[in-house]
């Protein structure tokens, strides 16, 4: 059943172990809307294989226990950075055997077997590719008795997510595997979002285990528009995420200003713009999940829409579509996906009934006596009284023949939620 993890990633725990404790995690959970923490264990860079094993083992144990006590998920991340992970495969195998055996009865532990590999393709049959490495680590984890979710990094700093479909681990009988995509919003935009969409269209299970609002260096300016476009896409497809980084390092991606020494109960003045955006975004998604979990929604379970709005899956609360008109081979319909006391989640589906791909711009107009608060997969072009016009994002404007695109939104009303009326495609 779909469920979205809203996460914060530590920086390297050999450097920033002060944030791996129960008080820190509880502030993330209770104040930020976070339900998962990623523990970045660097093998190199003075890390696990270069003199810091004892300290890092202690920190990982402390982090897993803190997350478990608080009912949170935790990722143990073998933080390969910018090299072929096969170079340390024997040591990585020993690491994962040990931790898989230790936590095989824990339902909240996830293993990330390589963070950002480079220099070798996902699969080329050489035995020295990322696929071969991930297969070896997966076998070690399963042989140790753990059926935990396993996250596999992809080539080019975990950006070649579209390559996985040609050779997923499921082809060799492994299951409960997901594949990693990383993005930094100021660097990675429509091209990488298109790769993600290609992977999703192929059925690849994706996990964004690291992202930031700045450029790929962890520094530079913030691109909030790009970050919002990314989060719309993640929410629409129920993709879990972890933001970088839980530290006070002097860089744009850090959550805390360099002068801040507090490790919990932070004030707004302690936070960087990256952290403020993360808090606001994760709280919105957490609030939506709470709406559903409270039992006020119509017939849907927590997991079926617990990711927040627009997971792209039809829930038991789906209502019949309202009438629509078609234009240029496109036909729009609307449905209520979930409903609670003060509002509902809606889906506008635009289908291409023609025999060829539709590539031109389009908009959907409709009447709805409600106030749209959040929208994903599109944007509001105009709103006058009860009349709305919405348009898709760049990544879902083109629609293949026989396929469809969806724009979802939450809307609040004073009375019973009603279907959008007078729907037209422009």
Main beta sheet, described?
A: 8 strands, parallel, barrel
Number of helices in the DSSP assignment: 9
Write down the secondary-structure element order. Answer: EHEHEHEHEHEHEHEHHEEEEEEEEE
Strand composition percent: 25-35%
- Rg over CA atoms: 22 Å
Contiguous uncertain segments of 5+ residues: 295-321
The percent of residues in helical segments reads 25-40%
Judged by helices, strands and strand pairing, the structural class is alpha/beta
Q: For the record, give the distance between the C-alpha atoms at the N and C termini, rounded to a whole number.
A: 36 Å
Spatial shape: globular
Going across the major beta sheet, what is the strand order?
1-2-3-4-5-6-7-8
User: Quick one: how many beta strands?
Assistant: 17
Calculate the mean pLDDT score and round it.
Answer: 89
Chain-wise SSE layout:
Layout: E1 6-12, H1 22-32, E2 36-41, H2 53-69, E3 73-78, H3 89-102, E4 109-112, H4 130-143, E5 150-152, H5 155-158, E6 177-184, H6 190-201, E7 206-212, H7 224-236, E8 241-246, H8 273-293, H9 302-305, E9 326-327, E10 330-340, E11 343-352, E12 364-367, E13 371-376, E14 378-384, E15 387-392, E16 404-412, E17 421-425
Parallel strand pairs: 1-2, 1-8, 2-3, 3-4, 4-5, 5-6, 6-7, 7-8
Antiparallel strand pairs: 9-10, 10-11, 11-16, 12-15, 12-17, 13-16, 14-15
């Amino acid at each position: 059943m779909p469920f979205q993890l809203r996460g914060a990633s530590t920086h390297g725990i050999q450097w920033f172990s002060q944030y791996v404790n129960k008080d820190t995690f509880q502030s993330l959970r209770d104040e930020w809307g976070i339900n998962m923490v990623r523990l970045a264990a660097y093998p190199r860079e003075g890390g696990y294989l270069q003199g810091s094993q004892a300290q890092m083992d202690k920190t990982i144990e402390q982090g897993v226990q803190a997350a478990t006590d608080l009912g949170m998920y935790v990722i143990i991340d073998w933080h390969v950075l910018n090299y072929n992970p096969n170079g340390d495969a024997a040591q990585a195998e020993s690491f994962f055997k040990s931790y898989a055996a230790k936590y095989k009865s824990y339902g909240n532990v996830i293993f990330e077997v390589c963070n950002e590999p480079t220099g070798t393709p996902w699969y080329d049959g050489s035995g020295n590719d990322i696929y071969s490495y991930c297969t070896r680590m997966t076998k070690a984890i399963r042989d140790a008795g753990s059926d935990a979710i396993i996250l596999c990094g992809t080539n080019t700093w975990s950006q070649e997510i579209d390559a996985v479909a040609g050779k997923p681990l499921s082809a060799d009988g492994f299951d409960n595997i997901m594949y990693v995509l990383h993005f930094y919003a100021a660097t990675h935009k429509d091209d990488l979002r298109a790769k993600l969409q290609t992977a999703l269209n192929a059925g690849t299970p994706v996990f964004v285990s690291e992202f930031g609002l700045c450029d790929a260096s962890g520094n530079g300016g913030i691109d909030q528009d790009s970050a919002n476009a990314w989060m719309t896409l993640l929410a629409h497809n129920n993709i879990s995420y972890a933001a970088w980084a839980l530290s006070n390092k002097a860089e744009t991606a850090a959550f805390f200003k360099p002068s801040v020494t507090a490790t919990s109960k932070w004030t707004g003045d302690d936070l960087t713009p990256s952290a403020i955006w993360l808090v606001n975004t994760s709280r919105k998604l957490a609030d939506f999940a709470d709406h559903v979990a409270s039992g006020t929604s119509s017939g849907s379970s927590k997991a079926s829409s617990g990711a927040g709005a627009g997971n792209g899956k039809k829930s038991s609360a789906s209502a019949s579509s309202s009438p629509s008109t078609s234009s240029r081979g496109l036909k729009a319909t609307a449905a209520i996906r979930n409903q609670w006391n003060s509002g509902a989640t809606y889906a506008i589906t635009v289908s291409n009934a023609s025999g060829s791909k539709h590539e031109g711009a389009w908009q959907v107009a409709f009447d709805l006596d409600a106030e749209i608060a959040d929208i994903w997969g599109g944007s509001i072009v105009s709103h006058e009284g009860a009349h709305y016009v919405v348009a898709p994002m760049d990544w879902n404007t083109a629609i293949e023949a026989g396929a469809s695109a969806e724009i979802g939104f939450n809307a609040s009303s004073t009375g019973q939620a009603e279907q959008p009326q007078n729907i037209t495609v422009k």
